[in-house]
Design a protein that fits this description.
Layout: E1 6-10, H1 14-22, E2 27-30, H2 46-58, E3 62-67, H3 73-76, H4 79-88, E4 93-96, H5 99-108, E5 113-116, H6 125-133, E6 138-140, H7 147-155, E7 162-169, H8 181-186, E8 204-206, E9 214-216, E10 231-233, H9 238-244, E11 248-251, H10 258-278, H11 286-291, E12 300-301, E13 323-333, E14 336-341, E15 345-346, E16 350-354, E17 361-369, E18 375-376, E19 378-379, E20 385-390, E21 399-403
Parallel strand pairs: 1-2, 1-11, 2-3, 3-4, 4-5, 5-6, 6-7, 7-11, 10-12
Antiparallel strand pairs: 7-10, 8-9, 13-14, 13-21, 14-20, 15-19, 16-17, 16-21, 17-18, 17-20
Helix pairs in contact: 1-10, 4-5, 7-9
Length: 404
């Protein structure tokens, strides 16, 4: 294989950022305090960003900063200073959707690469080439494209134009995320990173002459969810994505937890590495597929990649949550693990451990001691510092989980 496939992971805060690096991301995308498409995330101050970039570069990883909101006129005058400040952090690329913002980035941060956001809705090679001629190093293609169309784009664009595609995470019911439902119903603009996700809500019909009576749109006790897309999961289709010409695999989820980032990054890292090693003999290890059922998610689909549509979850608007994190290991010494509690667990529990080296295993909790070195039967207090003995050693950075 001539070129290494990049794994690009999301980070909404520093904990997520460290999870991405620890579990094998080649690059991390995140936002500053303005102009990013996720206002619900903590996001990064300029000092946090400088620390993150330094840490990433020490590990030969890259950092991309999202500037992909739809910028209003009153924001334009703030962009030059923002670009100069972000460039001073030594970031590797901007992710941009707007042509005017692209022009400003090239003027005020000329040494920073530009990636064109999926918000731009690129579905053909003419558009990809146009952005390339405007100075883009990479295009993030629209999520609605099948693999056959991606292959055509790859064959009709310059070899040095990188192609990035989403491979995992939430799907938006609207084309490339261009949605006004949230803004219309709640005043929260999805195109500025503030989506209230009304597509996930339950809806009923109301007949004007029957005040107070609500009728489900379909005959089911739980009502119906008209726009509630399944989540994307392409973990079983690494070869097809690579052969179509995708050079960067992007995981959605800047508003999600560090645990989500760790599990998804680890799964795709191991799958990509296995394919690069095995080539046409590649077979996805069962444990990798099982890992993606251990995070909070909606029903999975392959999105639009095979010409079909992701489909809707019609039974509920919520997530499938089969596992919960009970602790994170902070260190290992003298045969014992130092952990920080996240959810309640007990002596005798069997925990499912995801270590930094990425191969999960199960082990039993033999003993729990609190901060006063007293033996206790359970760990009921959030973020409590504990010492645990286990059948199999658990080392720093590992995540301890239990099945619900």
């Amino acid at each position: 294989m001539s070129k290494r496939i990049e794994l690009l992971s999301p980070a909404g805060d520093m904990e997520c950022f460290n999870s991405a690096l620890n579990f094998g991301a080649d690059a991390v995308y995140l936002a500053g305090k303005e102009f990013g498409m996720r206002t619900s995330s903590k996001n990064f101050s300029i000092n946090e960003l400088k620390t993150a970039v330094k840490t990433a570069h020490e590990k030969n990883a890259k950092v991309y900063v999202t500037c992909n909101t739809i910028a209003w006129n009153e924001e334009i005058n703030r962009l030059p200073e923002a670009f100069e400040e972000l460039a001073s952090a030594d970031i590797d690329a901007f992710i941009i959707a707007d042509l005017g913002v692209l022009q400003l980035a090239k003027k005020y941060a000329p040494n920073v690469a530009v990636h064109i956001s999926t918000q731009a809705g690129i579905v053909n090679y003419a558009a990809a080439n146009a952005f390339y001629e405007l100075g883009a190093k990479r295009v993030v293609l629209a999520r609605e494209l099948p693999l056959t169309e991606i292959e055509v784009i790859r064959k009709n664009t310059p070899e040095d134009l990188e192609i990035e595609c989403f491979v995992h995470g939430a799907m938006c019911v609207s084309f490339s995320g261009r949605c006004i439902i949230s803004s219309a119903m709640t005043g929260r603009d999805a195109n500025r990173g503030d989506c209230a996700q009304p597509c996930r809500w339950k809806y009923h019909l109301y007949e004007e002459n029957r005040e107070g009576q609500f009728f489900p749109v379909e005959e089911a006790d739980g009502g119906t969810y008209l726009y509630n897309s399944r989540d994307l999961c392409m973990i079983e289709h690494i070869p097809e994505l690579i052969k179509a010409g995708v050079t960067s695999f992007k995981i959605e989820g800047r508003a999600k937890s560090a645990y989500y980032t760790a599990v998804t990054t680890n799964a795709y890292r191991k799958a990509i590495d296995a394919y690069e090693l095995e080539g046409d003999d590649f077979k996805l290890p069962i444990w990798i597929k099982e890992e993606l059922d251990k995070i909070s998610h909606r029903e999975y689909s392959t999105g639009f990649y095979f010409g079909n549509e992701p489909g809707q979850v019609t039974e509920n608007g919520g997530y499938i949550r089969n596992y919960e994190v009970v602790a994170v290991c902070e260190g290992f010494q003298n045969g014992e693990s130092k952990v920080t509690q996240r959810n309640r667990f007990f002596t005798g529990d069997e925990v499912d451990v995801l270590p930094i080296n990425g191969i999960p295993f199960c082990t039993k909790i033999l003993e729990i001691r609190n901060q006063w070195d007293s033996i206790v039967d359970s760990a009921p207090h959030a973020m409590e510092k504990l010492t645990v003995k286990t059948e199999t050693p658990i080392f720093e950075g590992a995540i301890l989980r239990k099945r619900r």
